[in-house]
Design brief:
The complex is a heterodimer of chains A (284) and B (573). With 284 residues, chain A is mainly alpha-helical. In chain A, 62% of the residues lie in helices and 0% in strands. The two termini of chain A are 28 Å apart. Chain B is mainly beta. Chain B contains three helices and 40 strands. The radius of gyration of chain B is 22 Å and the shape is globular.
């Protein structure tokens, strides 16, 4: 999680200007594809509340295992859920899936370069409580996990169910949410479930797992913030088209990768990771 | 706290909808044959009988041996000293056995003679004289949806109550049969409503698939406190799992949606799997049923983000009204088919100096999980009893050869086979599957006709894998509280039957190599062995034991797949 060496500003200086016409066109199409107008005031309010939640994240590491009935992780997400629900209601996710390309290496490459060139990015991440090394980690995670990311496809790209016995491979499109919706709501479901999981699995969970999980939570919430901020800019008419595409794509990517990492860091606990058997009850 | 605990009834479906459906109409046909039914002595089975069966040696009224599902013979008549004297009392071959038809566990009702109620797949129910093996009546149900002879569904057993034998059917129903004659009493149509929508015809169209592909099951219902409870199956067929409670007259009481909508993105819950195809256990001290749950579906994790709660683990709900108590996921957001069908067993043991009520189970993931039965908090996860290698590696896309070998295999660990528990030595006896595999997603379109369709590229190995010990199966004795694996008996063949333990310290287990073995429960020492179906037999049944006081013998019964042999051993006591 901690990356030493160059920081985001260094990478940004290395990224040369390149044509962004294609990204800009995509952004315009996302806007045109909305089914309902976005509520700028609602989004601004919820983003402000979401930003406040980041201040509590460092406490989670110190908290360790929640008590039965406590919900420190779930308490992080209400504002993000309200943003998510608004984006569902306005057709934002459907439009994003329809008008943005799949997570190909090329698209990830283009959008992360664009992200680096966004002047507002370091400041935005900094305001959310990401120091330099974490800012860099958020972006480099996208690039290093791009193959895994590519397995998350727009719904129509999966093989369809064509026969009644075909369900374990194909998918019924009408039941699968758009890609960006899966990214955001999936991330929030994972965060909400952590209180129970960590409490329930105290005999297995180590401080290292919690530390890594907290980072995954933080990055997913940052992805939710970027997604919500893209919508807010769209509602306010302050987003450049290419910036819109970038924020949506990268926001979704961060949330997807966060889900995958969270599962590996704290949900899928093997014998090497777990608290040793003979220590399992000493601290419980 | 988890969101299900905050709203304990969110997952319940409205059974009023079901009441509008044809829930008493039977879609299929029953064929009944009667022989010398006069041998069956009359006597109602009461709730008191069900509660005390775990303490009685002359019957076995619940598949798990009792509500606690410990699969325990409570007497000391059969013990390490005389188990070597077991001899075949009777045996028979049954038909042309399909692949999964012999995973049964019979019910034994006390009397002179004791009566055995025995199932075979698909949808066969028989009454036998348990002393001689003589068939007294047969009830063969032919569900409308049909069943393939090539991969016929298993029938793991029946239940008994009042004057009835009660059995799940392959079309998701529950059938009550007169236990003296084999004739129909009532039928509950569990497929006449689905996801809150009544069927247009007798069965909801989304449940009308042929029972011919993949894993499928018919497990005995659980009868407790005026209710009959049973699950559903078909996790690989685009369904969402459910678990029903019905009245003793076959009327719906409550239904648990095993894919609670609020916990799944979009409508992914509708095809989310998490079926409850195996038998639960009841903790009578807390009035809850512990439901085993299958894998999440489809196997593409990317279309169903989140924990996918209730899948691949256990869910405890109130027997009274189906309210949520707790859930445990053995494999959250499962990619590997690591479901958790083996029933939990319930017991009391000391943890850190305190007596606690616990539930333990052996899932496909290959560890024994032990939780506090009141809260669901994990008390211990055992040492591995099958090998783990590259555990939790996410399957890649298309290029199978790039994927590492992983263990456990998709069949387990432990699949549906029930474990047993010996309280005196705090030993749980489990059987396991120990093979490497690797797999990747592959875009493959189904092209009929075809039988099996796994939807993934998978590869098992006969190659040498350095980390693999080369054994395909294991029988293990495990302390579920400390997590210690006390002993392992490795086998060249898969061990996939259920186990049985006696209070006197003998445990029985079988292998697909044909061996049926009695172990010293605490040490794993082999005390006796036989090959009831010959070398080609696969001992996939779950053994039971009973005392026949009129003959002064103890019997042990087990079924053998492939050979189709059912065998009753006995020893004079």
């Amino acid at each position: 999680m901690t990356v030493s060496g160059p920081v985001l500003a260094d990478l940004r200086s290395e990224v040369e200007d390149e044509a962004t016409d294609e990204l800009a066109a995509m952004g315009r199409k996302v806007e045109e594809g909305l089914s309902e107008p976005l509520d700028a005031a609602l989004l601004a309010t919820e983003l402000s509340e979401l930003k406040d939640e980041f201040e509590r994240i460092p406490e989670l590491r110190n908290l360790g295992v929640p008590e039965y009935g406590e919900t420190p992780y779930q308490d992080l997400t209400p504002a993000a859920w309200r943003i998510n629900d608004h984006l569902v209601e306005t057709g934002f996710f459907e439009s994003a899936e329809e008008n943005l390309p799949a997570f190909t290496s090329e698209h990830i490459h283009a959008t992360t370069r664009q992200l680096l060139r966004m002047d507002s990015l370091p400041g935005m991440l900094s305001e959310l409580g990401f120091p330099d090394d974490e800012q860099l980690a958020v972006v480099t995670n996208i690039v290093t996990a791009r193959e895994q990311l590519s397995w998350w496809q727009p719904t129509p790209n999966y093989p369809p169910v064509e026969a009644e016995d075909d369900y374990d491979e194909g998918v019924a499109y009408e039941t699968v949410a758009p890609l960006h919706h899966r990214a955001m709501e999936g991330a929030l479901l994972w965060i909400d479930g952590l209180d129970w999981w960590i409490w329930q699995h105290e005999v297995l969970v180590t401080d290292e797992m919690i530390n890594r999980g907290v980072w995954d939570v933080k990055s997913m919430l940052a992805g939710a913030y970027l997604m919500g901020d893209a919508a807010r800019r769209l509602a306010e008419g302050t987003a450049g088209d290419e910036g819109l595409t970038t924020l949506i794509t990268v926001g979704a990517a961060i949330m997807i990768i966060g889900q995958e990492f969270l599962a590996e860091d704290i949900a899928w606990i093997d014998d090497e990771m777990r608290k040793p058997l003979d220590e399992a009850h000493e601290e419980v | 706290m988890n969101r299900m605990l905050q709203n304990e009834i969110d997952h319940r479906e409205d059974v009023e909808v079901i009441r509008e459906g044809p829930y008493q109409e039977k879609p299929g046909e029953s064929n009944i044959e009667q022989f010398d039914t006069d041998q069956i002595t009359e006597g109602e089975i009461t709730e008191e009988h069900l509660h005390e069966t775990g303490e009685r040696t002359d019957n076995w009224l619940i598949m798990g041996g009792a509500y606690d599902s410990q699969r325990r013979y409570p007497g000391d008549e059969l013990n390490p000293e005389n188990v070597g004297d077991l001899e075949v009392e009777w045996e028979f071959e049954h038909g042309d056995p399909p692949m999964t038809a012999y995973q049964n566990s019979p019910i034994i009702v006390q009397g002179d003679p004791p009566i055995m109620y025995l199932t075979f797949g698909p949808d066969e129910l028989h009454a036998l004289n348990a002393r001689t093996g003589e068939f007294l009546w047969s009830h063969i149900y032919e569900p409308t949806v049909g069943a393939s002879p090539d991969t016929a569904p298993a029938e793991r057993g029946a239940a008994v109550f009042c004057d009835w034998v009660i059995k799940s059917t392959l079309d998701l129903g529950v059938m009550a049969v007169d236990r003296y004659t084999g004739e129909d009493v009532w039928y509950y149509n569990g497929a006449c409503a689905y996801r809150g929508e009544p069927a247009d015809d007798l069965m909801h169209e989304e449940l009308m698939w042929e029972r011919s592909r993949g894993t499928t099951s018919s497990w005995p219902p659980l009868i407790y406190d005026g209710k009959i409870m049973k699950g559903s199956f078909g996790g690989e067929y685009g369904v969402s799992g459910f678990f029903d409670a019905i009245s003793l007259e076959g009327e719906p009481q409550w239904r648990v949606n095993m894919t609670p909508e609020e916990e799944w993105v979009g409508d992914s819950w509708k095809h989310g799997g998490a079926t409850a195809w195996a038998s639960g256990a009841v903790d009578v001290e807390t009035d809850q049923v512990i439901i085993p749950s299958a894998n999440a579906a489809p196997w593409y994790g990317t279309v169903r983000p989140g924990w996918n709660p209730y899948s691949a683990g256990k869910v405890a709900v109130s027997t009274e009204d189906g309210e949520y108590r707790w859930h445990h996921q053995d494999a959250p957001h499962d990619y590997w088919d690591y479901d958790s069908p083996s029933p939990a067993l319930v017991y009391t043991a000391e943890v850190d100096g305190e007596e606690r009520r616990l539930a333990s189970w052996a899932p496909k993931s290959g560890w024994v999980h032990t939780v506090d039965v009141e809260t669901g908090q994990l008390v211990q996860r055992s040492e591995e009893y099958v090998q783990h290698h590259n555990m939790w590696t996410i399957p890649g896309k298309e290029d199978l050869n790039k994927m590492p070998w992983i263990m456990p295999w998709l069949g387990g660990g432990t699949n549906p086979q029930p474990s047993s528990y010996h309280q005196e030595s705090q030993t749980m006896v489990v059987t396991g599957h120990n093979e490497p595999w690797r797999w990747a997603w592959e875009d493959t379109w189904y092209e009929p006709p075809g039988e099996g369709f796994s939807g993934i590229a998978e590869l098992e190995t006969t190659e040498y894998l350095e980390e693999w010990n080369g054994f395909h199966g294991v029988v293990a004795g495990i302390d579920p509280v400390s997590g210690e694996v006390k002993w392992q008996d490795w086998h060249d063949d898969v061990a996939r039957g259920g186990t049985l333990s006696t209070a006197s310290g003998v445990s029985f287990a079988g292998t697909r190599g044909g061996d049926f073995i009695a172990y010293d429960t605490e040490t794993g020492e082999r005390l006796w062995a036989d090959q009831p179906g010959g070398e080609d037999g696969e001992v996939d049944g779950s053994p039971v034991a009973w005392h026949d006081p009129y003959e002064e013998k103890v019997f042990v019964f087990v079924s053998t797949q492939q050979s189709g042999v059912a065998t009753a051993y006995s020893v004079e006591v």
